[in-house]
Amino acid sequence: MSELPDDFTGTNTIPAIDRMMDVLTAIEARSSGMNIGGLAKQLELPRTSVYRIVNTLQKHEMIRRDDAGNYHLGRRLLKLASHVALRASDIDMVATCQPHLDRLASELGEGVKLSVMDNDGVLVLATAQGRREYALTVAPGQRMPIHAGAASKLLLAHADRELLDYWLSKPLVAYTNKTVTDPKRLRGELTKIRRLGWARDKGENAPSIHAFAAPVMTRSGRVVAALSIPFLAGTETSQMEEIRMAAIDTAAAITSDMPE
Prior knowledge:
Layout: H1 15-29, H2 36-43, H3 47-59, E1 63-65, E2 71-73, H4 75-81, H5 93-108, E3 112-118, E4 121-128, E5 143-144, H6 150-157, H7 161-168, H8 183-196, E6 199-201, E7 209-217, E8 223-232, H9 237-257
Antiparallel strand pairs: 1-2, 3-4, 3-8, 4-5, 6-7, 7-8
Helix pairs in contact: 2-3, 5-9, 6-8
């Protein structure tokens, strides 16, 4: 099916939306962000026009402004992207997984996350908030380190060899004294994760936050996401085991709901 109508021409557009897209494209291309003056100069638009555009985009969380006055792409874009079907399998991950996440968060009381790996690393695609008094807050759209954390390690453990070599060739940052930064040691841990079928975080991103993660797979056995449950350090051993099994069981239930 054609993506555009047969009678589509470049004149059948809305100029205000065209300018908005020009602003987003310019901001996307500059990792350090752009201020209103820079946008006005690059796009050859009046400052007042750029000001109205960025104010509108910021209101809708499509962009954000840092303390220096530069604008960056906003978290709302990640939330929108999370609803795009994965091209490899045409699976709408959020639609398939969200009921399972909501049910698990309700039953367990802990926050639940679903993460995927893309070209930029690990992205939290969907979440469900826990109802326990000390449940950790989770939010979609977060970017997580590729090598630290239960979900990240699980996804990295199931990445193909070329992709694994690529990520491990980069500097591995230590966030806590539990973060594994030696590539050889990390490869050994990833091998263990593949053997066990689940991953654990013992405070690799933050000393007080631990987590378990389990793989979400297609019917063919390809790992496409990681379901993880973060919890506070010091949680009772029996409760940790309950969390670990809940992650494994829910990931398996999601896998069984995946289309062929």
